[in-house]
Design brief:
Distance between the termini of chain B: 60 Å
Number of domains of chain A: 3
Shape of chain A: globular
Strand content of chain A: 15-25%
Largest sheet of chain B: 7 strands, mixed
Largest interface: A-B, 17 and 26 residues
Oligomer: heterodimer
Radius of gyration of chain B: 27 Å
Helix content of chain A: 25-40%
CATH class of the largest domain in chain A: Alpha Beta
CATH topology of the largest domain in chain A: Uridine Diphospho-n-acetylenolpyruvylglucosamine Reductase, domain 3
Radius of gyration of chain A: 18 Å
Order of helices and strands of chain A: EHEHEEEHHHHHEEHEEEEEHH
Chain lengths: 261, 789
Amino acid sequence: MYNFEFVKPSTVAEAVAALKDEGAQALGGGQTLLPTMKQRLASPETLVSLSGIAEMIGVNAAGGTVTIGGATSHAAVAAQAGAYPALAALAGGIGDPAVRNRGTIGGSVANNDPAACYPSAVLASGATVVTNAREIAADDYFQGMFATALEEGEIITAIRFPVPQAANYQKFEQPASRFAMAGVFVAKYADGVRVAVTGAGNDGVFRWAEAEAALSANFSPAAIEGLSLSGDDMIGDVHGSGAYRAHLVKVLTKRAVAACG
Amino acid sequence: MPKDGIGASTKRREDIRFLTGAGNYTDDINIHGQTYAHFVRSDVAHGKINNIDTSAAEAMDGVIKIFTAADFASAGGIPCGWQVTDRFGQPMQEPKHPILAEGKVRHVGDPICVVIAETLEQARDAGEAIEIDIEELEPVLNMKDALKDGATKVHDDLTSNLCYDWGFVEENRDAVDAAIKSAHHVTTLELVNNRLVPNPMEPRVAVGHYARANDEYTLYTTSQNPHVIRLLMGAFVLGIPEHKLRVVAPDVGGGFGSKIYHYAEEAFVTYASKVINRPVKWTSTRSEAFISDAHGRDHVTKIELAMDENYMFTAVRTDTYANMGAYLSTFAPSIPTWLHGTLMAGNYTTPLVYVNVKAVFTNTVPVDAYRGAGRPEATFQLERVIDKAAREIGMDPAELRRRNFIKPEQFPYQTPVAVMYDTGNYHATLDKALEMTDYANFDKRAAESKARGKLRGYGLAHFIEACGIAPSNLVGQLGARAGLYESATVRVNATGSISVFTGSHSHGQGHETTFAQVVAEMIGIDVSQIDIVHGDTSKTPMGMGTYGSRSIAVGGSAMVRATEKIINKAKKIAAHLLEASEADIELKDGKFSVAGTDKSVEWAGVTLAAYVPHNYPLENLEPGLEETAFYDPANFTYPSGAYVCEVEVDPDTGKVDILGFTAADDFGNVINPMIVAGQVHGGVAQGIGQALLENTVFDENGQLLTGSFMDYAMPRASDMPSFDVDHSCQTPCTHNPLGVKGCGEAGAIGSPPAVVNAVIDALQRGGYNVDHIDMPVSPSRVWAAMQQG
């Protein structure tokens, strides 16, 4: 790790100001950034910690919406987002206890790791990413592996999830990292079903449109039976081919629908 | 008998310090004036070093000195401890292994230069400022391609990339060919034994400390065998005589073989400490460990098993390519040969065996012994091909094994592959395992799984290993450049407490507890009166260390011999004190008595007399009570066992769940059953890791794709079932005083074939025509095989 400055503002405004400095970088729970810095693969001059900003921490459920502050830990979401059980279950299955107590939803969604769990929930829920500057619809937010609509210095202050009628997240873990080798989040709303896939796609999290159409017409595992994804669009690596991941997505989608009951 | 004697599950005394964070590991050692070394390593697999420019780095804050190969012009290379002779009678090709790369880099991780600075961060900063101009060369990666005419050479001064072409038993080559040709049935299997990264919990560390005032060197290092390091480094690399070189291996957090070898970093810190006249510390990062610790396994094998019309094994022929990596690590040449070919008879009466091994240099991290070392590779191919054969001929795999087992009455049994098994009862361990796993009712369980949409499989493997390594005269004939005896000094103190100095080294095995139990039993005093001291060449007699499941069988035997000498002398003293004949003195429960009388003297009374010899036969007997013994085993020991794995395969995803794992071992006599069970648990966990999870993958450029725990899948507790282990089948070793065989490696040897056999059984029962899946049997590989089958 190289030397760096560390600041810990207590308001969003102070954080935004601090991030205007050249070489400043926002620090969420540090579950990606700190290991990267230890490997000397990142060298921010200043880390602006978001963990001391009270207005960015907490889970609030009201009027069919669950709003989660950007600096809320996975463990807190798992414990407090009972109004959206599938989301709470997803948060409780990320990493291990140490990761869940440090990692934050804002950090995960800002990083947009192609194998992270949260992006699938945000996209399948049609959630709204709230920043210090604006509100971004999930469909506009994710722009490929590690790429998002966030501008330089923009902070995710909260994420608003409309609570679906039924939802479920199924994750098949990569054997080494235990990240999602494929993860499928299915959410059923009054106006249709949304299916988002993480861990598998070449371009990061994506919506499986054919599955959404089929499930919107017939919300049962059988609706998926005739569908398939192309392995060419999926990640192939030492842990499995694109064809295997395409197969897993189908299996997990069926399981998620079945689990919705 | 004391309550913590032989056979007691005494709790491990060393765990108090390990579990409370009070262990003293090498990285805990900090010496006044200490500096920090950072190794700059090759990031390409194969390249010519055109230039190294250290000028900018040398000017940086805190930098003391930067070393390159030029600084080691007078030093020797890292030596190899075993010379294998090929099947044409020629010695193996043995390239130089420099401390720092000379002219060429030969694997990712090959050290090029070292920065020593006041702080580690300063050393790393300066390391990044060194400009190294490397001209990349084509990497040599695939072993079979490496042996083709005109292949790029890893070592330009060798004739090819072939280290040796070994045949065993060479005289049987034609007879084996003929037996296979005329066999009733031949089963053939081609397989890969996957390369593993050892990954002990504690990465390697070395601290070198040169004391100018008395010209003495001390090396603190994470080693399984400090005397071996002292010998190799002192005599062959740096030219330091033993009396001026002390090697200390304090608490060591796991080795699994990877800490046997003498590594460049050890020689570096020792030498550099003298050059800069300050202590030098190097601590490996986990990332560094992946590319600098010697790896394990990495064989590509074809095995053929021939049977007659009664399905008796008539011959085994194997053809193996064994990856040596870029250089020969300390014991690398011996692993695919003498620790592998000699086990190819397994538990069976196969009369003819021929093993061919081509050891190959590649631009990869060196490969050497890893828990089991050669024996897992032998067991895996044999137990896999037997399972395949049973399927082909439609026979129960347990029955096929049973009819070919060496029978209890045939011991001692001379195998066709040089080794002679002293004892064993394979029928007993097989029956035990089948009983423990309710083999008779497996079909019911399979049906229950099927009803839940899962494929259930039952996998059996039997194994034999050669442990208690090893008779020195024999290994000398086979090319070892060392003896493999063990030593112990038993020092009885004046008040009767005892310090045992052993040449064995404990890095997780629990010797401090087990060894003390043996001495407590022999003398009849409380185990708390006995301390076990190890890991310091300035304290213990010349010893060979711990590997090859040798500690209790060889080190324990040396300790028994030294303790016997103590008891003999103590009886002489007791006879004098009791005014009786020495022949009438009996030692029981820590008390010497005269047979048939009520005259006695306590242990402490005798020991005090030895050191305060006022009433003492000084004319016949020296004062004091301290004895040393060296023990050289007459044979290997041959633990064996039957392992059963029961799995469920999810046909939708290919994921394998291990439902149960049972080990019925014959370790001969057992000193501490709890510690033995723990050793089996650990070994089985590592074997399951190899079978299902661990894989070392280099890309086409020789870059390690699985260079961190993000991609190298280590087994975790959640991957394991609750193990069911038994060691009640005991045929004691006939040639060592404790009748022990050793238990450290068994789990890692017997488990991989049991796991893979179970997965194949599950798939076959599910209607998939799958004969083999290479390890790791990952979900994606199982799924891919199901698509083909």
